[in-house]
Amino acid sequence: MNNAAPSDKRNKKNLIVRGLNALGIPTAARAEWLLGWVQTLAIAGLLAWVVLTFVVIRMTVPTGSMEPTIPVGTSFFVDKISFFFRDPHPGDIVVFWKSDQGGVRERLVKRLVAVGGQSVQIKDCADGNRECAVYVDDQKLSGPPFERAYAQGGQMGDQRWIVPEGHFFVLGDNSPISQDSRYWGFVPRQDLIGEPFLRVLPLESLGFMNGYFGSQR
What we know:
This protein is of the alpha+beta class and 217 residues long. It is built from four helices and twelve strands; from the N terminus they run αααβββββββββαβββ.
């Protein structure tokens, strides 16, 4: 004997079916099964859209400006959440918007070197414009994130710049071929997108990056 109340049976139906039934449209068992899958796929699509819009994005690097850290063609996911809760730190790899003179925006990836209020200068060049050192607040940068072959270039040359508050100075790890803050200036805080955290292509490089879960910076 089936003691289930009619309301219990209605509650087991998915939202689409219940909506159709509320409008007076009857649904057969097979139609309800198909509509159940439609609802599941719709929810999955909505969740994917939320994640890809507000949580992560995927990016592929078309140039060698961040080699050897990020080779040409590397594809990775970008964490868009962290910077809502903290500021980036020097040594972090960051992704941001850069607008050209025509107002066209593109996503770039560089290494953060100095933040608002700090001074930055590239000097001690041993071979012309190559093999220079970077100084922040008159202290030479050292450690794994900054063990690079830096070069003077662009508008900066050998000048000592002060980073405005709310802005960042960024450099490519492959400094001699990188277009970065030396050429077009500072990155405003509002143009930051996030940090790379998971390398997905090429497959042999699959894994965390940029200091996430103990990975190399």
